[in-house]
Structures are given as C-alpha cells and as structure tokens.
Write a structure and sequence with these properties.
binds S-adenosyl-L-homocysteine, 5-stranded parallel sheet, elongated
Length: about 550
C-alpha cells in the first residue's frame, strides 16, 4: 500500500497572488483537503481533490485526527491554515496528534509543513513598513491560553518596545481583551503611537485604518482584523506607517540621508550603543536611546487623571515620563572651513566651534581642509546660523561638490580668487552620484595638488588649465588628465558647470568622476586617456 502523506499548508492571506507555488502543488496532489469552512471556500477553486472535509472553527483537533487517519490509510492529505500554518495554525496540532500515536519520521507517514505568508507580513505590507525592527505576534485569544500569561506577554512586549501584531484581537464574545491590551500598552507607550488596523488583508472586504493607540478602539476591530502597534519610533508618512530600521539618523544641510556606508556600519565608533565584545556591556552615555526600564509600580492620581483626559480629549499627554524614551537620535553632520581661499581660523571661530560641538558632538579634521562636525540636535538651523555668524563657510557632507583652493600665497597671487568663489557659490554643495572635489590652485606650482583632484583648475599666465579625473587614493592612484590649456577666465565657470552637469546626468550612483570618464571615454569633447603607465613591479626579495 502507498504510504500516505500530510501536507500542512499555509495558503497566505487569502488571494491567489499570495499563495506559494509549493502550496498550490500540495493542494493539487492531495486526495483530501481538510480545513475550516471559510478557508476551504477560499481555495476550493484551486483543487481537484476527491474529498474536501470542511469543519467548524472549534473542531481543530478532530480535523487533525481526521487528517492522520486518512494519511495512514495511504492518502495524500492537505490540512490547510490561513497565513502560515505554523502561526496559530494547524501545524502544531497535527504533530501533537501524531506524537500521541507514537509517530516518528522514520517509520511513520510523511509530513511536510508548507510555509505561507502570515498576517503580520501581509498586513504590514498594506500598512507601509511598520514591522522592520524587532517585533512579535500576540494572540489575544484566551481559549487555549490563560489570560494572565497573555497579559504578561503584552506587558513584556510593551516594555521592550517591540512592534506588536495582535492576532485574534476580538470576536463576538471576546471583547474585553483588546481593551485591556490597550490599557497595558498605554502604561509604556505614548497615546500617539501609530496603530494600523487591517481587516481581511488581500481579500474581498479588505479594510485598512491608520489610527493611534489612544483612538484605536473607536474603529471596527473584529475576528478578521490584525492590529499592528508601532514601537516608540514608528511614524506616519503620507498615510503609511513606517518603523525606521535603526536608532540613529544622520542628516546634513538640506537633506536627510542614510548615514553609514556598508563598510562603516559594523565599526565600533559608528555604532557606539552596541555591546562591547569584551565586557558584554553597552557603552555608557547611550542611555538616552535605550529603553527606560523603570516603570513606576503605580500611577499617581495626577497621571491617571491626565491619561483619562487624554483619552477623552484625544490629545496626547504632555508629560511623557512613564513612556519608553527611545526615540531616534538625530545627528546633524556638516562641514566648516574658514573659506574657499582663506586658511586662517579666528579665535572667535574656534570658540564658537567648541561651544556648538559641546560635550556630545565631535569635530574631525579632514584631508579636504574642512572640519566635519557631528552634533546631536533637533535644531540644525540654529547651528548653521551660529556658524555663519562667525563667517564660517558651511557645507554639506556626503556626495556633493566640494571646492578647495590654495591659499594663493597668503593673497599675493589673488587675481583668480573671485573665480574660485564664484565656483563655490554656483556649485558648492551640489548633490552628485558621488563626492567630487574641485581643486583650485592660483599658480602653476599647483602646490595644493589640484592635479590630484576630480577636477583640477590651475591658474597660469592669466588663463586656466583644466585637469579631469584623478584617482587620488588607492594602489592605482594617478593624477588627473590635462584636458584644456589656456582657458579664458570668463569661460571657466560655465565649462566646469557643463562638465559637472554631464557627469551628474549620466553617472551611475557611487561612480566617481574618474570611473565615469574611463567608462564613457568622453566628457563633453574631451577624450579619455589612460593615465596609468604600466610599471613592472619587481617581486620583493625573499632574503635567505
Ligand atoms: N495562521 C494565520 C493566523 C490564524 S489566527 C496566519 O499566519 O496569518 C487568526 C487571526 O489571524 C485573525 O484573527 C487575524 O488577526 C489574523 N488574520 C488572518 N488572516 C488575515 C487577513 N487576511 N487579514 C487580516 N488579519 C488576518
């Protein structure tokens, strides 16, 4: 006799587009399909099984027993669950029934659990990106789980700032659970915490509601709803619920940007809140971004009153002392220098820098003749204003145009300074696919190394020489290629602007100018020439 097999199939949220191929295959080869009526109806059109056993909601154990019986008689059986069969579904139950009968994988019938898209995932996709960070699912059904345990789990999840997906939030008879869940959450999380309610995701009667922790109970929540509660940094944007991936946001002038490149991410300096591998401790000084562990055992009457008031008026409570304080730390990054041509700092500028950076920020001197500031703040404009007040040149950091000029021999060779300043005004800080340095030197000595920049500009005999595409670092470093000699000064700004515009429009993201030049072989009418003369490298002597 043929050995039977049980597939435990999660068929996803309910539409054909979101069921896996393996699930469809399993259903198609099954002699029996066993499941809860509503679910069987959802997949009925997909199957040709000779027998479909649909049962009521509460007959899960008999469903599992029937499946085992049929499989032991040599049939292929699919037991179906919505979403994923291993998430409040039939998978565990099937194994429990088998174990009861002394089943082992070696001797018994075959069992295959086919994974499916669980409600936390399907609902999250409809809300935006609310899960993203550490999350959990909690079923509010206390049919099989004591309410005391569910309560504890809600509290633990609330305390630890998990994003929470509540399954089985409410039914005709169970209406208090979600009210209690809200009450517990409000002890730790702001009433303004974003909450998404998704009913019948990817089914005919799909409904999506964006609300808050304080207001969620004013909306319809039922058996087919999943309630997704954000963590303390979740926010709404354009009717989407978003939980950011990390806990620190860096931004520079004019733009919010992803701060760390992949190779920087794992560095200790970049993520100082991480666990120290030797001591096993989190660095001190980062309490402000960790969860406040202290929960007051009892609320004061004032707190109770303000909570009640906030629920009635629907305004967030003003004092947030008891909530989790784990909002994202914003670090403003900006570059300063005394000016394009000026290399002297004044005492007042240095004092201002020290004041602005304070104890928590950092200042870093860079090869670009700038000082990079990183300052935790939510008022970047005040910082920029204070820096400009003392005549600092303030520039964004990142993939932007940065212009550095020489000191023009302390101003003795000053004729070309106005062109450098004009370039700074017109192009400084412009966003590009990759950082681009323009070196501007006031005489043919080019002692500030303009010919080692992405674009080198050298003033010589009242005209300009232009160099393109140096590779300033690495083992294959090379100088830039001379492309123009003796350019009339009044043509300078427009020529450089044209070069940069062409690069900006056509380069790949992250493609530095030299790479772009090498790839396309032509910028404006300048042809690429290989600046790397191949030099034979002698092997190192090995000694004896
Ligand atoms: N195994 C299923 C969960 C079964 S418990 C899964 O992995 O998704 C039933 C609960 O799941 C419902 O009360 C509801 O909270 C959630 N749920 C299941 N399908 C859903 C859907 N299409 N839309 C919204 N919630 C759903």
């Amino acid at each position: 006799m043929q050995k039977g097999k049980i597939f435990v199939v999660g068929f996803g949220p309910g539409d054909y587009e979101h069921i896996t191929k393996r699930a469809v295959d399993a259903l198609k080869q099954s002699d029996f399909i066993i499941g809860y009526k509503t679910y069987v109806e959802l997949i009925e059109h997909l199957v040709t099984a000779k027998s479909i056993v649909s049962t009521g909601m509460t007959e899960e154990v008999s469903r599992a027993q029937e499946a085992v019986r049929q499989a032991e008689a040599g049939n292929i059986v699919s037991v179906i669950s919505s979403g994923d069969a291993g998430v409040y579904g039939m998978a565990g139950l099937v194994y429990e029934v088998l174990i009861e009968l002394g089943w082992t994988e070696k001797d018994g019938i075959a069992v295959e659990v086919v994974p499916g898209i669980s409600a936390i995932n399907s609902c999250a996709s409809l809300l935006g990106a609310p899960v993203m960070h550490d999350s959990c699912t909690i079923s509010l059904s206390d049919h099989l789980t004591p309410w005391k345990i569910i309560e504890k789990r809600i509290e633990a999840a609330a305390m630890a700032d998990f994003v929470i997906a509540f399954y089985n939030p409410k039914s005709g008879r169970r209406t208090r659970q979600i009210v209690e869940a809200q009450r517990i959450l409000l002890e730790y999380r702001s009433p303004a915490t974003p909450v998404g309610l998704v009913k019948s995701a990817y089914r005919e009667r799909q409904e999506i509601v964006m609300t808050t922790l304080a207001e969620m109970l004013n909306h319809d929540i039922g058996m087919l709803t999943t309630v997704v509660v954000g963590n303390s940094s979740t926010f709404f944007y354009d009717n989407k619920m978003i939980t950011p991936r990390g806990y620190q946001r860096k931004y520079t002038l004019g733009e919010e940007k992803q701060p760390l490149r992949p190779h920087q991410r794992l560095k200790k300096e970049a993520e100082p809140w991480a666990m120290d591998q030797e001591t096993g401790e989190a660095a001190s000084g980062y309490e402000q971004i960790s969860v406040q562990k202290i929960k007051k055992p009892k609320k004061s009457s004032l707190e109770m009153a303000s909570l009640a008031l906030s629920l009635v008026t629907k305004k967030p409570i003003t004092s947030s002392k008891t909530y989790i304080q784990q909002s994202i730390e914003s670090i403003f990054e900006v570059a300063v220098s005394p000016g394009v041509a000026n290399k002297f700092f004044t005492s007042e500028q240095m004092r201002t820098l020290a004041d602005i950076v304070g104890e928590n920020g950092t200042m870093e001197y860079t090869p670009e003749h700038q000082i990079h500031l990183k300052i935790p703040t939510d008022d970047p404009q005040a910082i920029v204003d204070a820096l400009r007040q003392v005549e600092f040149l303030v520039a964004p950091i990142g993939d932007v145009v940065n212009i550095k000029a020489c000191d023009f021999c302390y101003g003795e060779k000053a004729e070309s300074i106005p062109y450098a300043e004009q370039l700074q005004e017109q192009l400084g800080g412009l966003n590009l696919p990759k950082q681009l340095h323009i070196g501007f030197n006031g005489c043919g000595m080019a002692c500030y190394r303009a010919v080692f920049d992405d674009i080198g500009i050298v003033y010589r005999k009242s005209k300009f020489d232009i160099f393109l595409g140096a590779k300033p670092v690495g083992r294959t470093a090379h100088a830039a290629q001379p492309v123009v000699e003796g350019l009339e000064p009044e043509q300078l700004v427009s020529l450089i602007t044209e070069i940069i515009n062409e690069y900006k429009a056509n380069a790949h993201p992250n493609e530095r100018l030299f790479k772009y030049f090498k790839r396309v072989k032509k910028i404006l009418n300048f042809d690429y020439q290989d600046m790397m003369t191949k030099i034979k490298v002698e092997p190192a002597p090995c000694g004896d």
